[in-house]
Amino acid sequence: MSAKLWGGRFTGKTDELMDAFNASIHFDKRLYEADILGSKAYAKALAKRGIITSEEQASLVDGLEKVRLEWQTNTFVIQPGDEDIHTANERRLGEFVGSVAGKLHTGRSRNDQVATDFRIWVREESKKILTHVKQLVGVAVERAEREIDVLMPGYTHLQRAQPIRWSHWLLSYAWSWQADAQRLEQIIDRINVLPLGSGALAGNPFNIDREFLANELGFKGVMQNSLYGVSDRDFVAELLFWASLTMVHISRFSEDLIIYSSGEFGFVTLADAYSTGSSLMPQKKNPDSCELLRGKSGRVFGQLSGFLMTYKGIPSTYNKDLQEDKEPLFDAVDTLSGSLQITAGVLSTLTIHPENMKKNLSIDMLATDVAEYLVRKGVPFRETHHVAGAAVRTAEERNTTMANLSLSDFQQLHAAFDSDITEIWDFEKSIENRSSLGGTSKATVLEQVHKLKQWLSEK
Ligand code: ARG
């Protein structure tokens, strides 16, 4: 007889290479704790229905605890026949408690077992990732409040556009990350429904109390169809997309910092802790942290598309293709966990250079304000836009800035110009004018700080 758990109907041996190809223990051992939790709950549910005695239940729970301890202390020895975490734990349980171990799997299949274990693991890891996202928002909010008076050029098309507050730029990312956190919370809710009790596919024949199991394992509900229970991996796809989108935000943020830390911009300097040098050029200080964050995003997108390719062609219900759901997610979780913490580290330690930001504010960035000046004097905006454009052109032709044009220069462009036009050449004033909700004025940026702080303090 084969030593394999499923070996009863087999006479021939599996090919050695096939054994290795089939095995997932080298990666799914990360699920050990979730697997033990699921088994303990299942032992209790079996006892509740009188399938095993309470002594047998106690013995199983005790043995499972011993197995858990071995994993925890790194003393679990994986044997050649240990195909995956589920077979490994059951084999070891048998060595601790004897033949009663063989009762644990009554009515259960590795199909509902693995779906349950994975959901438990993903749920717990997602909660950890959520705290990293919140910490990152916290770092951005803290800086935004502290550095509220720093002004910088805002860009569109990477061309100087309008003056803004540095804090307004910072918070633009904080809002993206807040949305990421909210999305993750919603995904956690969808992960948190129980497949256990679905059996291999058709359901459990021992009237196992699935509500009880859900309660034991911290699930909010029970999956209502056993076929769906064992085959659904939408939560994996959702989380991989979530990870991808969050990496988009991190990557774009990193790209901004890479540009802002260049010699040409000089707006920020990354801390030594998050930079590296060149082996050849002694003067170099490179923003490697940000480049890695930008680069690692590609890796996460790859995991998402790779998994979707695997997932799309699988017929009902469990097929071994589904074993390929774990490595992409493990990798994405590791990448996200590292990236979020590094991003927070980069942001909390970088130095800003407000004087360089200010130096790059140029009078032409106030052209919109010139147009708005005329609007306030009753001229239609479409007309004022042309007039302000002409003022920019005149200044350019004279090789100077609009601030150096005389009142009569302006009045030649439009009769509504008056001596108060000189008040326009003030970057802070331009910024303070943007005081409608969501704008870059001090009050409206501080309002954002307040709202994000309030959100961070919830729960
Ligand atoms: N290692 C498998 C996986 O990760 C466990 C489920 C195996 N089930 C089966 N019917 N072969 O998907």
TrEMBL record:
Top enzyme class: lyase
Listed transmembrane segments: none
Start and end residues of each Argininosuccinate lyase C-terminal domain: 365-432
Molecular function per GO: argininosuccinate lyase activity
Domain of life: Eukaryota
Pathway: Amino-acid biosynthesis; L-arginine biosynthesis; L-arginine from L-ornithine and carbamoyl phosphate: step 3/3
Reactions catalysed, as given in the entry: 2-(N(omega)-L-arginino)succinate = fumarate + L-arginine
GO cellular component: cytosol
Catalytic activity, EC: 4.3.2.1
InterPro entries, per database record: Arg_succ_lyase_C, Argininosuccinate_lyase, Fumarase/histidase_N, Fumarate_lyase_CS, Fumarate_lyase_fam, Fumarate_lyase_N, L-Aspartase-like
GO BP of this protein: L-arginine biosynthetic process via ornithine
Domain Fumarate lyase N-terminal residues, every copy: 8-302
Family per record: Belongs to the lyase 1 family. Argininosuccinate lyase subfamily.
Name of the protein described by the UniProt record: argininosuccinate lyase
Organism: Acaulospora morrowiae
